[in-house]
Amino acid sequence: MNARLVSIALATLAAVAAWLTLGIQAVLDDGTRARLGVLPEWWLLGALWAAFAGVVWWRRLAPSRLWPLALTALVCLPWLPGPIPAAFLIWYDGLATAVWLFAAIGLLILIVRPGPSARLLADPRRAPLALGAIALLLFLAGAWTMRSRLPGGDEPHYLIITQSLLSDGDLQIENNHARGDYFRYHVDELRPDYLERGVNGAIYSIHAPGVSALVAPAFAIAGWPGAAVFMSLLAAVAVALLWRVTWRLTGDASAAWLAASAFAFTGPGYFHAFTIFPDGAGAAAIAVALWGTVRLECGGRISARQLVAVGSALAMLPWFHTRFAVLAAGFGLILLLRLWRLEDRVRAMAAFLVVPIVSAAAWFGFFWVIWGTPNPAAPYGQATQSAWSHLKPALPGLLFDQQFGLIANAPVYAIAFLGFVSLSRRHRRLAVELAVLCAVYTVAVGTYRMWWGGYSAPARFLVAMLPVLTLPLAVLWSRGRPATRALTLVLLAISIVLIVPRVIVDGGGLAYNERDGYDLLLDWVNRSVNLPLAWPSLHRDVVADAWRDIIAWSVTGTVVVAGAMWIANRAGQAWTWMCGAVALTIMIASSVVWKGPDEAVTPNTSSLSLLDAWPGRPAGPGWQSSPFRLAEAQPVPEGLLIGSTRRGPRLSRNSALLNAPLVPGGQYELVVDSARPEGQLTVTVGRTTQVLDEMQLDDRPADAGIDVIELPAKVHSLMIQGDDRARRAVKTLMLRPRTVGNAPGAKASIVLRASRYGPLRMFFFDDNAFVEPPGFWTRGNSTADIFIDTLRPEPAGSETGHATLRLRAGPVASSVELSSGDWRETATLEAGAEKEISLPEGRPGGWALRLETRAGFRPAQHDPGNKDMRNLGVWVEVVP
Asked: What is the DSSP string of 266-284?
């Protein structure tokens, strides 16, 4: 076939795929996979084709430089008419964007040629500094983006130890908690995290003090931000050091860039670089130990001062966390055996051991002095934290669990484990040492009950080990064939891409998972198919079922990737073949794991996703798949009926007749399937039990109006519950959209909770208000965004309702500024004082109200009998 025609065909495919990517659709039925949607206008398809084909024709691009465009065929699969496999729907929405990203990377690899400046990236003096600087900037960017969620998990507990060291010069934290020292960085009550008091009766944290002491100077200067910057700087230095280590082992600058980037810019390493956990600091210490090990492996001399530095790094590990003692002992043994072969072994071993011996004595003495025993498990008291039985879920979970597993969240490490084979061919002893160390450490942390690491980013307990895996990864890259390199690069790109939405969506809202077996990122990226049910989970499934899923993914991936590598090594175009192999693996493995279409396809969330995109929908023809038809798009998609979603954990409240997540703003008819409706329905929105609306089903006349639920903006969730009579009478409850879109003035954000106060309905967009039955408290020293609409019938011709709010200060004076559009009013209140403020009239639809509170108090600090530690501002209620 003429090469020019092949190039034009690839450009045509890309143009069609780009046109379809701009369309929106929803799955209506899980059995037939019937779909409904809207396509862009036809002229846009012509314009895209002219642009793609014109560039190809003008630049005379050969097919060999355009084959990555073949990947865009994946984007077309969800738009095929008629019944299609559920796996085809994977490539809609967020994953369609990912397809374009990987096609673009492939084009850049084939089209762009490195310039003279690329030589700077290979300079072993400048390249580590460049990578370290890039890493530092990205770490700081992550900390800044996620600042509203940090510090989280155990971070405040490490910081309270820091405060105890700085303010009291000890590790007794009870007084620091009692004073509320943690309020500088933690808004709610923080109780001491301990299990066993010391022999003196004082409370000492269950957490090791090493990282707390490490960040103390930075915290003293700038509080939590200073500590986060220090941890980021420490991680950036470790990344630069890993570049040097892998370059010295391979002599290949590209391998050093790839391996160090795999540690720095994939989920486990990245998220623990700027958070106050011991794991990032532990990884930095391991990087120093690797530097010494590789230097000896490659025959380099190592001075006494350098040996003291390596020994000091290992000596710090147990102080960061007790489990790091395994790594410290393992690397210590590896280095001692290597130093034994030196001529000046006595001097070298003495320099290496001087700090670890002193540190070990102090470490065991630390437990003896505080808890009366040298046992490092003493802080846990009688609690059983480790047992061999925990290995059954932990070993597969540490690697493959969709929420917390290493390979599931950074798939590049799958090939890093395989890289031990390549490492053993040139550095057999080093490969054996590191492989045994990784295995022993993984088993050690797997015996711990909380193998997932608590409330933290994925693979927390394996982060300190990850620098070790950069070595086999670098060797595999440096000695690999084109297909091997392409697969490594594809897996690295996937691993990096996975962290982007976790950081930027909802201020880092996808980064931390609860132990419910449903990964937030998988749930977010595609609302038409249930991707969390296709990935292994050790928290949702029993171990046997999880192993079944793991085997399905592993076997499928091995067979498909091996076949693609065989073809790529002979036919070329390795990037395209490897990307295609990964895509095919995802489709086949997902289809195998899903038990049927009722698990795979989720029509309700798919319809909600379409409604969410509807206000900015394309202006082209409407489209349906079965039977295939093009028609004019309706103002609101006809035929959409939205019921309870099957996604996520099962509901604990059996009275829920409808539960729908992320319902867009608009008006929704309530469709009741019942022979004789009776009972009462209650509507709640978001994370609250406060009732928003009530509906009576008893004795409804035939000509009764249809119940309508009005939402001013997208809500976190919508739940409709029924009393006993309603649950018996109602078969199904569904929503039919009437209009879609936010109310005028409503914030383009998600309503987290809502409540009704008399004639007013209030929708809260953040956590800066505490919703209670008669009213709500604002959070002290914060800004709360609320949308208020009225349920009161208004006289004919009036534009809006009238509302008056009563504000009351707590036991301290407070000041609150209320604003809505260009209206502003400030209420300055003495302790216990009240003030009534009328909201402005002439606001159609309601009021977008912002309350900025400039003071706060904690009830427990003003009333000895009160245990409430919330930071409260002013009380707000509606005047009857």
From this structure: SHHHHHTTSSSSHHHHHHH
Please say whether the beta carbons of 647 and 633 come within 8 A.
Answer: no
CA 84 to chain centroid, in Å, comes to 31
659: tokens are 């539960």
Closest CA to 646 of 592, 593, 718, 598: 598
HSE-up of residue 474 (Cα within 13 Å, Cβ side): 30
Task: List pLDDT tens digits, range 308-325.
Answer: 999 999 999 999 999 999
Model's pTM, two decimal places?
A: 0.93
Long-range contacts at 53-61 (CB < 8 A, ≥ 24 apart)? 53/8, 53/11, 53/12, 53/15, 55/11, 56/7, 56/8, 56/10, 56/11, 57/4, 57/7, 57/8, 61/7, 61/111
Asked whether the beta carbons of 400 and 536 are under 8 A apart, the reply is yes
Residue 598 CB neighbours (<10 A): 12
Q: Which of 638, 647, 568 is nearest to 606 (CA)?
A: 647
Bond from prior residue into 627 cis (ω within 30 degrees of 0): yes
Residue type, 780: G
Query: Coil, strand or helix: which one is 39?
Result: coil
| Amino acid residing at 524 | W
Q: Alpha helices of 427-481 — where are they, by DSSP H?
A: 428-446, 466-479
Each residue's pLDDT tens digit, 647-694: 876 544 456 899 999 999 999 999 888 878 888 999 999 989 899 999
Cβ atoms of 802 and 865 within 8 Å: the answer is no
193 CB contacts (<8 Å, ≥6 apart)? 154, 157, 205, 206, 207
Q: Which of 665, 784, 647, 678 is nearest to 715 (CA)?
A: 665
